[in-house]
Specification:
The chain is α+β, with helices and mostly antiparallel strands. Helix content is 15%, strand content 26%. The chain is built from three helices and twelve strands; from the N terminus they run βββαββαβαββββββ. α2 runs parallel beside α3. The protein starts with 5 loop residues before the first strand and ends with a strand.
């Protein structure tokens, strides 16, 4: 995994490498890149996810498959990242993404709680000032496939964990969540120090 919207995985059906670019979001910028990457690793590493393309197998200039990513819970990964302040919507993204970003700004989550200045987001409207002032469907536009298809034959993709230097502190991790590598150190969103430790067959974040 090299960015919040870029990762490699293995097709669970063919065991072939799948290079992915997540549609709808992009990096907040270099200032907060380490923290957003830690969020992406915590959310995706070792998980089985579903990839939905536009039915034509569209790819970016680097040959990465352009897809929507669904987490094991069925949640949209792009919306989850935007709501956590770990990514910003692309220009022309849908109302769900711009609304998620606005909520993250109001609640000061992720990059919005830091001193970093994110790159200009895809929102065409400023964040709402109250709970009733939300973006509408007409405020954004995004070409969406009429019949999204799962990469045939509906494979799930297991992301490939990437090794980290032993002294690399992962930030924004979640207590009790799966982690890698064993022995790594991390800091939760609340500032609590945690360690990647084995508990039985699982390796999870536990209190340092």
């Amino acid at each position: 995994m090299s960015a919040v919207d870029l990762f490699n995985g293995l097709d669970a059906t063919t065991s072939e490498l799948v290079r992915v670019r997540v549609t709808g979001i992009r990096s907040t910028g270099p200032c907060w890149a380490h923290d957003e990457l830690a969020f992406a690793r915590t959310t995706l590493n070792g998980r089985q996810v579903r990839l939905l393309d536009d039915g034509r197998g569209a790819r970016d200039p680097e040959g990465r498959l352009l897809v929507k990513v669904l987490l094991p819970t069925g949640q949209d990964y792009a919306e989850t990242a935007a709501a956590a302040g770990a990514a910003v919507p692309d220009t022309g993204s849908n109302a769900q993404l711009t609304s998620a970003e606005s909520e993250a700004r109001q609640q000061r989550r992720g990059v919005w709680a830091s001193t970093c200045v994110p790159s200009v987001s895809g929102s065409s409207q400023p964040p709402p000032s109250s709970a009733t002032d939300k973006p509408t469907e007409s405020s954004t536009s995004m070409a969406r496939p009429t019949a999204p298809v799962v990469v045939p034959p509906q494979p799930t993709v297991t992301t490939t964990p990437q090794p980290q230097p032993p002294d690399d502190i992962q930030r924004g991790v979640e207590m009790g969540a799966p982690c890698s590598p064993e022995g790594a150190h991390g800091v939760t969103a609340k500032g609590q120090d945690v360690t990647c430790q084995r508990k039985g067959k699982d390796v999870r974040w536990t209190k340092a």
